[in-house]
Every structure is written in C-alpha cells, then in structure tokens.
Design a protein that fits this description.
The complex is a heterodimer of chains A (63) and B (299). Chain A is mostly beta strands and 63 residues long. Chain A contains one helix and five strands. Chain B contains eight helices and ten strands.
Chain lengths: 63, 299
C-alpha cells in the first residue's frame, strides 16, 4: 500500500517482471522512502501490478 | 467473571481507551491464550455460529494488504468471493440448501449453511512435502507459511494440497496462502480473522485446548437436538485421514464435508509415490517384454 502526494492510497502487487524481490521493499517501508512506481492495471482486481520501482530523494517530485 | 464468561484479569491493565503503544501479549486478552513459540496453535471454526458477515475476509485482506479480486456478481447466492485464492485467504461459503422447502422446514431452521474456510495448517502438510525449495515451512507456532523470497513459483504445492488452498498469483507468479497471521503471532497478537469474528465462530488457541472445547461443543449440540454436528479435522475424525493425522485449523460441521466443498477423505500425495513408482516400473517391464517378443518373432 503506497500513499501518493495527494494523500490517496494505492495497493500494488509486485509483478514477476519487476527487477526486485519482496524482501527489498521492507527497508523502503521502514524509512518511509519516497518512490516512483511504473505500473499497469491488474485485470479483475482492485490493485495495480508494479513493474518497476525507483527511489526518489526527499525533494524530487511527483512520486 | 462477567455474564458467566471468564475474563482475563489483564483487561484491568488497560482501563483507558487511549493506548500509548502495542499491548504486551494482547492475545491473552482477546483470545484467552498467550502466544508462546514452541507450542501448537490453530483455529477451531464452529460453523453453527457463523452468520456470514465476512468480517474475517475483510480483516484478513486489511491486515495482509491483499487486493480485492473476482470483481462483479457471480450469481452464486451471496457468495462473490467464490473460493480461496492467492489473494483471498479466508472465504465465507454461503451454502444454500435448495432441497429444502419452506413448508417442510422446521420453524427455527434457516436455508443456509455458512462456513469460513481457510488453510488447514495440516499436521503433515502435503504442500510442504511437495515444495522443492523449502519455501514452505513449519513455524515455531506449528503453522505452515510460504516464504515469498524463496518461492520459485514452480507450483508443485498447488496440486499437492488436498483442500485446494494454495494458489499461484498471476501477478507475481508465487504461491500464496494463509499464514495464520505469522507476523501477528510473533507480536503476541491473535490472528486478524479470529479477532474480528463477532460471534466467535472462529476461535484461535492452542490446538489441544481447541480440541477439548470443540468436543464439548459437539456434545452440547447433540444434547440440544442437533445430532448431525461433528468435527472435521480433529484427531480420529473425518478430514484427519490419509496420513494427515490432524488439521490445526479444524471445523464443526452439520452436513457432509462435500456440502462445504471439503474432501470426504483427504490424503497425502506422498503416500501414493510408492504405488505410483511400482505402476510405472511394471508398465516399463511390460513394454520391454512386448518389444522383446515382437523383435524375437521377426528375427
């Protein structure tokens, strides 16, 4: 579950095509890191499939 | 003692509704059991108490961040979840008794059987036996969990499960199922579904204690005239067959297991490896003899 800059919440499922593993997400969550997600809509599901994740600096904008 | 119910004296630890942090051993207050590594924990689901509210499904999805799936109406009664899946680890089955007729029904009897289905956390889990990477393992709480970083998505666990619980996600390609809230147990919390259940149809606790409680409940129901009540998955009962010994998540049912979409006599596929191998070797020997006979006749 990620929060956008507008305060919206979005649920993502890590795609098998994404270049990272679930255990790499925990440190990002602990640090509450800002990230940019490339994703596509998942069929028949209220979630999106995350294809790539890029870490942003605190100043860098839109997440 | 409040209204005949034994209340943990620890509730007096928290007289205010404002909490400053997580409660220590919260499960002791909500489920009456302290979660201690090395002991065996599970669920006793009493289907006679289920009202089909789906609070367990929602609590599970909330806690585990599982997306809603199977959008739209199925046309299958009020059941739009349909089955356990990679994204649905609790499923409330709405079983409509269509053979009943209103004029023939007893006044107190409804048309419905409801059951909150879940991974059975088998004592001898076939999914774990089939897993070639060790992604499926038994935790210190005697529950069965898939380690997502080790699962390679081979899918061997899917047909190995006699209950059809495990599924591969179409998005990440890995196997997913109920963890009996492994993270919550580690923090001393009751699993989310059991905590959310408003009628205590889902009871969490130590497996031995749950067996005793379940047997007493069956006796009570028999005394009250519900002679069809029985346990599914407790030692020596239906569902605990084929080398499974017993299920850590077991059920009280009032109709045949098949009515609840449960197998009548589940078995471990590992028990069939020997006979399968003998069958294969016999077929190979037969083919060799046939080939020998064929070539000898031509020669």
């Amino acid at each position: 579950m990620l929060q956008t800059d507008d305060g919206d919440h979005r649920l993502f499922v890590l795609s098998h095509r994404a270049g990272l593993e679930p255990q790499q997400l925990a440190p990002l969550q602990r640090q509450q890191a800002r990230v940019r997600v490339r994703y596509q809509k998942a069929r028949n599901m209220i979630a999106a499939s995350a294809l790539a994740l890029e870490r942003l600096s605190a100043q860098e904008g839109p997440a | 003692m409040i209204g005949g119910l034994a209340i943990s004296p620890r509730v007096l630890d928290h007289g205010e509704s404002q909490l400053r942090g997580p409660m220590r051993d919260e499960s002791e207050m909500t489920a009456g059991v302290r979660v201690v590594p090395g002991r065996s924990y599970g669920f006793f689901t009493d289907t006679t108490l289920c009202i089909g509210c789906k609070a367990c499904e929602v609590a599970c999805k909330e806690w585990n961040n599982l997306p809603a799936d199977n959008l739209g109406l199925t046309g299958n009664s009020y059941d739009n979840t349909t089955a356990l899946s990679a994204n649905t680890w609790r499923h409330v089955a709405f079983i409509e008794k269509l053979e009943d007729r209103p004029t023939e029904m007893q006044a107190f009897q409804s048309h419905w059987l409801m059951m909150s289905d879940v991974c059975k956390h088998c004592h001898n889990p076939p999914c774990m036996e089939a897993c070639p990477t060790g992604a499926l393992f038994k935790t210190e709480f005697d529950t069965v969990v898939v380690q997502q970083d080790i699962c390679n998505g081979c899918g061997y666990c899917v047909p190995a499960c006699p209950f059809g619980v495990v599924e591969l996600s179409t998005l990440d390609g890995k196997a997913h199922k109920c963890t009996l809230c492994y993270d919550r147990l580690k923090g001393g919390l009751e699993p989310a579904c059991a905590k959310a259940c408003p009628t205590d149809s889902i009871m969490f606790g130590e497996v031995g204690t749950l067996h005793e409680r379940a047997r007493a409940r069956v006796d009570d129901l028999h005394r009250m005239g519900v002679g069809s009540a029985y346990l599914y998955g407790a030692p020596g009962e239906p569902g605990a067959t084929g080398g499974l010994e017993y299920l850590n998540a077991f059920f009280l049912l009032t109709d045949k297991p098949e009515v609840y979409n449960l197998p009548e006599a589940p078995t471990r596929p590992a028990d069939r490896v020997g006979s399968g191998m003998i069958g294969g070797l016999a077929a190979m020997a037969g083919l060799a003899v046939a080939a020998l006979a064929l070539f000898t006749r031509r020669g």
